[in-house]
Amino acid sequence: MVAAALPGLTARSRNEGAKDAPAFLSGAHSLSMPARTQRHSPLAERMRPRRLDDFVGQQHLVGEGKFLRQLIEGNAIPSLIFWGPPGSGKTTLATILAHAVSAHFVFFSAVLSGVREIRQIVEQAKELQGRSTQPTILFVDEIHRFNKGQQDAFLPHVESGLLTLIGATTENPSFEIIAPLLSRCQVLLLDPLQPEDIAQVIRRALADEADGLGQDCLAIEEEAVLLLAAAADGDCRRALNYLETAAKLTLDARRAEASEASRTITEACVRETLQQKTLRYDAAGEEHYNLISALHKSLRDSDPDAAMYWLARMLAGGEDPLYLARRMIRFATEDIGNADPQALRVAIDCRDAYHMLGSPEGDLALIQAAAYLATAPKSNALYAGFAKVRADIQRTGSLPVPLHLRNAPTALMKGFGYGRGYQYAHDDRDALVVQEHLPPELAGAVYYEPTNRGYEAVIKDRLTKWKQILKQRAQHHARTKDGE
């Protein structure tokens, strides 16, 4: 569904040139962005597409008949939030939209700027609106870094239509953007680029003589392309940074060896460039919650292979190993419980082992625990029972303890009936007594219902037998009382 258009944003054809570039604002200063980036700029910046037709990936947004293409063709740009991982094209798409419409484009970094700069932008937009009908598009990079007060500062101006907001974020907007602002924006989800998309960008950069590496006349092995595309992990900027370094290494080697063969970027050269792959992970953001959710559900669904994979992914991404140990301790009680009482002991021992050994030796203790928990019988009977208990406490409040269950250390308390009628279980041959232990208002309530899985099957059988014995005794007691 196409979002409602804001008034005053009309598309026009643009020729590439400095006069057609959007204006950028750093602090209180507006700067012109040249049509072609300087040669000394990073390759990733030089290769940034200027037209939608040159954009690679995100076909669900930019393909024929898709949302962003409809916006441009329909002469309307609403307020948008681009949500996606690094290097997926958020800033590029915002820039392309600015080129496509007759609007004043302001680039604003949430890292470097604050409320004072927002006021300057608002004044400029009002002045521009007073001189002409040209609207202002405000692009806020890393908008999730704005606090509530900063977001509130430009909310009324987005609401009035003075500013069209385009925000970019790697974090979930549901948690990071205030509700009034979020309700006025269309959220567009960008995916990590596929390896084939990144491979296309790599080949284009090698061939492009104006902005890319075409003037160096470099070739590249197919294995090297595939390795770069995989190592980029969906991040186009990272792929181009790797390519630029690999090209420099290749040219340096050529100058040293004076060999035409060294004009080829080899797989070995790329491996030297990569050194160690950095995985896409944010220990405090959206990806953190995605991966811990995947780990928890893999454990719950008794899939040790997936559980080991997700745990290893989080370790490789820099997650705190003791956080993972704590999560597995919780899992042992929440999803296994008494189906395997040993699971809690394993999880706690895992934490202690890691605390003693650290990485990398202690990592194996985490893997061992994950495999054990995944293959243990599962039960959430304790978790479900606890939820029922809390609900009854919330409903009934502070019910008094029945008198027969109260301790009576003084004569006064005995005089008030404390402890009267209490039956001591060990006096019975089966250590079972017929007496109610819940308040009268909750008499007969059942909270713990063990499953037939693992050790809980033993517990269930035991409870069933106890209930039968107690029921028979209660019936016998009733008959005896009636006989009196």
Name its key features.
Zinc Finger, Delta Prime, domain 3, 484 residues, alpha/beta, elongated, Helicase, Ruva Protein, domain 3, two-stranded antiparallel sheet, 20 helices, Rossmann fold, five-stranded parallel beta sheet, 4 domains
Percent of residues in helices: 40-55%
CATH C-level class of the largest domain is Alpha Beta
Mean pLDDT: 82
| Overall strand count | 9
What is the fold named in CATH at topology level of the largest domain?
Rossmann fold
Largest sheet: 5 strands, parallel
Please report the distance between the alpha carbons of the first and last residues.
80 Å
Structure in words:
It is a single chain. With about 475 residues, this protein is of the alpha/beta class. The chain has four domains: about 20-190, P-loop containing nucleotide triphosphate hydrolases (Rossmann fold), CATH 3.40.50; about 195-275, Helicase, Ruva Protein, domain 3; about 285-375, Zinc Finger, Delta Prime, domain 3; about 400-484, post-AAA+ oligomerization domain-like, CATH 1.10.3710. The chain contains 20 helices and nine strands. The strands form three sheets. A five-stranded parallel sheet has the order 4-5-6-3-7, with helices on both faces. The protein has a two-stranded antiparallel sheet with strand order 1-2. A two-stranded parallel ribbon has the order 8-9. α5 (about 115-130) links the parallel β4 (about 105-110) and β5. α16 packs antiparallel against α17 (about 365-375). The longest helix has 29 residues, at about 455-484. The chain starts with about 20 loop residues before the first strand and ends with a helix. Mean pLDDT is about 80; it is low at about 1-35.
